Each structure stands twice: as C-alpha cells, then as structure tokens.
Fold this protein.
Amino acid sequence: MFDVFQNVLAEVQKELSEMAFKTWFKNVTLVELDKEAKTATIGVPNVFLIKTLEDKYSGMLLEAFKHNNIELEHLDFVIKSSKNTKVKAREVRGEERVKSTREIVEHAQPLKMVENKATTGLSPQYTLDNFVVGSSNELAAGVAKLIVQNPGDKRFNPFFLYGGPGLGKTHLVQAIGNAIVEKDPSKKVLYVTTNQFYSEFINALMKKRGEDFVKKYRALDVLIVDDIQMIMGKDRSQEEFFNIFNDLHLANKQIIITSDRLPEQIKTLDPRLSSRLRAGGAYDIQFPGFEDRCAILKAKAEFMGQDIEDAAIEYLAENIKTNIRELDGAFQQLMLMVEIKGMSPLELINEGYITSTNTRRPRNVTARTIVEKVAKYYNLTVVEMTGRSRVSNIKTARQVAMYLMSKDLGMSTPKIAPEVGVKDHTTVMNGIKKIERDQKNDLRLRDQVEQIRESL
C-alpha cells in the first residue's frame, strides 16, 4: 500500500517544479487506503497545508492513484501530530475536484514563478483571496485589484501604502505581486525590503558590479519595496533608488511602496523622491474594528480547516486590540492548545487556558491609570488635564486619554466623560474620532499614542 503511494508521489513530482513539490508534498504520507470505500486518508504535518492540497492538488492526487490502478472517490486529509495521532480530518470528494491531471497542472503552472522565492522574493502564502477586506483597508484593497488588472496604470503608479506595523501592508503588496505573476508569468516581478535593497546596493559597489545592479532593477515590470522609511540617512541608496524609480516610472512599469508613515514624514528623505512617491496617491491601512477582526479570524479558521465557535472568535477580537500580527499569534496559540488539550477553543477559554493577558493591556490598567500616564507624558497635572481648559496641548492630552480608554479598555463614551472632566458624552465621541483621524496623517501624534501605550 505504502509503496503505491510512493509511486503516486513520484507522478505528482513530475508535474510540479522542485520548489512546489518540496513546499506541499515533502512530509505528506498515506495513513490508510480503503479500496472498498474508495477512500484514501492522507496525513499532513500541519493545518496550513490542508486547504492548498484540497483546492489545488487533490485532483492531481486522485488522477495519480488512478494511474496506479486505484480508483478513488474521496480523499481525507488529516493532520498527523508528532505521535502520529489523527487530529482533524476533512473530506474531499473526487467529483468536486478537477478530474484531469493536465487541467490541474495548467492551473498550477502560473504559480511556479510565484513559489520560486529566489526569483521574485514573493511568498506564496500571501494572496488577494486570503486578504480579508474591511472598512479599515477597503480602498487600498480595491486599488490593489485594479493594479493587478492593469499594472502601470498612471492613476495608481506608484502605489504608496502606509500604516502602522502588523496591519497587513506586506500581505497586500505581496498578494498584488503574486496575482500579477499568476495572471501573466512572463512579468518580471521583484519584492524586496528597503534593507535588502540597501545591502544589495552596497555589495554591488564593493564588487564593482553597480552596472549589473542597475540593469537588474531596470528590467523589472513590477518593483515592490517594503518599509521605505528605512532608507532614512542612506543618501547614496536614495540617489540610486531615485534614478531606478524614474526609469521604471517613465517606462510605465508598476512601482509599489510601503511605509509606516507618509513620505513627507520620513526624515532626511530627498524632497524629489518624496514628491514622486505620492504621485499616485497615498493609501492607508488602519487597525480593523471589532467586526473586521471577527471576519479576519473566521477567514483564518476556514483557511486552516479549523472549527471555532463564534463566542471564541468574539473573545479574541474583543481582547486583541494591538495589530493583526498579534491577533494572528493569539489565534495560533489557541489552535495549538486545541491540539494539545483535545478541547474546543471555547472550552479552553472558559477553563482559563487562554486569557486576555495576550492583549496589550495589563489587567491592572484602569481609567485613572490612563489619565495619570497621559498627564505625565504631556507634562500636565491630572487637575489641569481634567479641567475645562481649551488650550491646545491640554485638549489634545484629554482626547488621547479618551481614545485610549475607548480602544484599550473598551469603555463607553458616557463612562469616559466623567473620567476626563467632560459632561457631554458627544464631546468624548468627537474627541475619539479626532485622534483616530489625525493619526492617519500625523506621525508625531501616532508615536505619542504608542509611547503612552507602552508606558501602560
């Protein structure tokens, strides 16, 4: 039985690139073969592989079994733990999958370049399909899809995407690159971080291969540069990037840039480059609201093939108010505990295995603590900050305190009002909205809020 599966894998390997085969089939095993039920149980090492194997390669596997004189109708994918115990199974019906190996290969072919990280720098895990769109990123995601349809469109070239860390900027821009390559494998797409660009440039200078460096970048159809704010203080790199940028832009090649701030807020950035970076507009990604966080967690659970109760999703969404990266980390921790303890996510939460200590806010933080910390940060007394003064810096401090109580403590506006010396809860509501709005364009204010949070 197991020798037959080696033959099946050998057939699959012939149809895929070496990179693709190692990525998806390296540790795949045959657990059980039931010829009467026309079912094979396939073991995979982790939950991340299940959806890809189901959606892209199940038809190929069924066809390969058929070539080895084994007619199957179902594939059950199960996760094999280190002790080789079955954790979770999902059934794949043969009639729901592509019947022909040729069709599967033709469908998968464009992904070969995407999966070749050495060629594009792209990670195949980032796709537009698994990027959850909500009110916090709707405009940026919409523009991303337009870019895929028409790379180099002057309306969105360059595409400048900014926002705080862990909000999905890298996911979205890499997803654009992956989608462009999948649509047209002949496109030369490259994703680099700014630090990678800098290191490559310095290395080229040292080896006197500057011309090769320039030729490589000027030959691209799509250049994606992550964290452009890291170019601060690197004058030679800025100059070279500026020249490459101009050449690509003049040739209508797509340029995609991410940053944690707007170009004009990047210290020491060449004004010429700053101006060009905003030529196609600047689009921001904000931290998602409660409903969007729930949608992200539900999409992740579906992608991983995991069952998770709505109450458990709402618990995580309510308690993780930092960034998507930490939300993802909390979800991964919960799923790991499900496997270890053999309990449902909600049971784990109710039993105290997963607590709100995963959040940014320590348990001892109160409204009074926030008032005191904010007042101290702005060199005010608590009496000054909670008084009736309308002086600009005092008013800003008061609004920051309102914002933190709302976002980090989940307090309602009527409860916040007396804590900051305000009678009307609509004043609190407007103050919170002002801080939310101003942080998009005011890097200094965003840094102040983050520093106060860290002090908590």
Q: What stands out?
A: The longest helix spans residues 48-67. The chain has a mean pLDDT of 80.
